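Re: [ENG-882] Designed sequences occasionally contain unexpected residues at chain ends

Forwarding the minimal case from QA. Structure tokens:
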């Protein structure tokens, strides 16, 4: 039996909920080296709802200090070519992390990885050497995986352009979900505290559609946590390949009957899913996810009214599928539907369009 807790919280007052999480899920941190990993997808302001809110990090750090953590490191590997520190600064997390902040992408080590995805991968040493990993995901939808929470937050173990290269190796959303589980299994976190105060719906993980949910979630089992979040969003087990596979591998519990809930599991009424998950029935979705690389069901499209011509998407596309004409244009045959361009566009000018 696994447990998932759902607490009412706001950013102005989340200390109480964070304290309750530490009480409900006791963790021995005294004298230990603790890595705290928020979701710093890219450079973004806290109000954009893309990154973990600094108020949650602040409350977590206070608990760790009071509980006598030996060494605290706050770090993540944002996507794109931007500076690690700049992304933390923009998100408000640097100011809160203070002396605990570390650019964990500057100290890395190669570890064995699934031969299917290259046989080896470079991971931040801080992840490998932590006694305790405390993950702070942001509750959001995700065009490839349905949702991003516990399992997906671990993709930040990997620094630099490797993340984009792995997207290309995976080739379709189904394989991408499996590769995510491989990364998750490198170091399964010990505790999760999810920022679901201001959450994201629609075409996440970088969408303009934010919703005030007013919750923090906590668990020691990330698989159970993602399963519960899927239930809240209206994404069934059969559509959550990463959760299903992680459960099959014994990395956590995916069966709702074996998950004890502390607090109320409220479905998010009218929650908007990414188009792909909203428009297809589960069996069609599974088939489409396996072959999306060839079928290109959803391709990125630039909205000229929003595009600032910064060139970021063209520079970061791992498949060189974008060219700068009057505005960036996608070459459908080259695109591997990784949606890195959508994630990294600072203007949120890229939409996923059914073709
Ligand atoms: S990243 Fe966004 S704003 Fe920049 S060129 Fe691409 S579409 Fe335009
Ligand atoms: S165009 Fe966008 S979705 Fe297609 S491969 Fe490039 S970054 Fe990925």
């Amino acid at each position: 039996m696994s447990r998932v807790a759902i607490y009412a919280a706001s950013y102005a007052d989340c200390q109480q909920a964070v304290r309750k999480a530490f009480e409900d899920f006791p963790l021995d941190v005294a004298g230990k080296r603790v890595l705290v990993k928020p979701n710093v997808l890219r450079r973004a302001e806290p109000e954009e709802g893309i990154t973990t809110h600094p108020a949650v990090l602040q409350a977590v750090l206070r608990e760790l200090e009071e509980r006598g953590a030996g060494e605290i490191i706050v770090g993540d590997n944002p996507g794109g070519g931007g500076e690690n520190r700049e992304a933390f600064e923009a998100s408000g997390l640097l100011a809160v992390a203070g002396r605990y902040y570390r650019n964990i992408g500057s100290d890395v080590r190669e570890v064995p990885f699934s031969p299917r995805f290259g046989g080896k991968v470079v991971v931040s040493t801080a992840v490998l050497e932590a006694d305790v990993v405390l993950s702070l995901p942001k509750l959001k939808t995700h065009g490839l995986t349905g949702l991003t929470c516990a399992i997906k937050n671990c993709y930040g173990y990997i620094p630099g352009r490797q993340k984009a290269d792995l997207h290309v190796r995976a080739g379709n959303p189904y394989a991408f979900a499996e590769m995510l589980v491989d990364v998750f299994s490198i170091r399964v976190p010990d505790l999760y505290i999810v920022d679901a105060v201001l959450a994201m719906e629609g075409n996440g993980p970088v969408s303009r559609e934010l919703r005030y949910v007013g919750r923090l979630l906590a668990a020691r089992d990330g698989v159970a946590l993602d399963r519960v979040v899927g239930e809240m969003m209206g994404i069934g087990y059969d559509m959550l390949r990463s959760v299903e596979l992680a459960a099959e591998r014994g990395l956590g519990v995916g069966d709702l009957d074996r998950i004890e809930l502390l607090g109320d599991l409220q479905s998010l009424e009218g929650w908007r899913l990414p188009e792909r998950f909203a428009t297809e029935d589960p069996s069609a979705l599974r088939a489409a996810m396996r072959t999306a690389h060839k079928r290109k069901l959803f391709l990125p499209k630039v909205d000229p009214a929003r595009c600032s011509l910064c060139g970021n998407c063209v520079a970061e596309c791992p498949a060189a599928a974008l060219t700068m004409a009057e505005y960036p244009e996608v070459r459908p045959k080259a695109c591997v539907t990784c949606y890195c361009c959508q994630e990294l566009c600072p203007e949120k000018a890229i939409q996923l369009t059914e073709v």
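QA comment: On inspection the terminal residues look reasonable. Residues 2-275 form a domain with the Rossmann fold fold (CATH 3.40.50.11440). Proposing we downgrade this to a documentation issue.
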